[in-house]
Write a structure and sequence with these properties.
Length: about 100
């Protein structure tokens, strides 16, 4: 069953069709020209650059960090994250919901 929060998110989205076509064409071009590792590396570099353009303030808690990340994702209309703490493995788990996948 689909998460009702995801359905609510998609119902509120403003969709710009010209960007879907452009992004699909760009991703298909990258897929056709670069092997998996090179493509992943390029997209990781783009993501790193995007993160530098959208810096987060210092946060005092995990819930505050989740809120700040979601504020930035909302600006880009790129879904939202859910953060959770795995105390046993000393890790923060990040679930990116409603990510903009080109399909």
């Amino acid at each position: 069953m689909t998460d009702p929060n995801v359905l609510t998110y998609f119902a509120r989205r403003g969709v710009a069709p010209q960007w879907r076509v452009f992004l699909r064409a760009m991703m298909e071009t990258l897929e056709g020209q670069l092997d998996h590792g090179a493509r992943e590396g390029l997209l990781r570099m783009v993501g790193t650059r995007m993160a530098a353009l959208m810096p987060l303030p210092a946060c005092g808690s995990l819930s505050e960090l989740e809120s700040r990340i979601n504020e930035m994702l909302a600006i880009a209309d790129w879904g939202y994250v859910q953060l959770s703490l795995d105390v046993n493995n000393r890790t923060v788990l990040l679930r990116h919901v409603a990510a903009p996948l080109v399909g």
